[in-house]
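Cross-check.
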Amino acid sequence: MNDSSPARPAAPVLDVWCELQCPDCRSALDDLRALRARYGDRLELRLRHFPLEKHKHAFAAAQAAEEATEQGKAWPYVEAVLGRVEELDREGEPFLVEVARELGLDAEEFDTALIDGRHILIVDADQAEGKAIGVTGTPTYVIGGERLDGGKSQQGLRERIEEIADRLLAEADQKA
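Predicted model, tokenized:
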């Protein structure tokens, strides 16, 4: 079948370098929700992992987020864990499995994934790429080739992301 309608241009990508034990990343949730509400599927929010050494459960949390992605609930899982950073601090991996259970995910598969390390390579690759492009803390955003560091201050970042996204969308519309 030949579809003559023009292909829709790919959505601009906002890479969100995040760490699930990071209070600053929890603070960024409101901005991420607002961006998702404003752009819907016209802006692809892509979770990227950057676990920090100072948080002992961050690497496991990144693996758990990848399992949530496989089970189709990446952002609900990320939001649930970030919303309860103190519990993650206290309880570690059992908390990650409990959140999966609360969201109706296959908690036993989460437990197995944390034991067998099936998502370690993805987390390692994200971390290596983050270091290569100059990510030093979380949250850090990359959109349209511009890196925005939210770890120092999130003041004005959503507005800056919106400016860049609007420009990228306008450019895509002109090409279409």
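Strands lie at 13-18, 44-49, 140-143, 146-149. Confidence is low (pLDDT under 50) at residues 1-5. Passed to J.P. for a second look.
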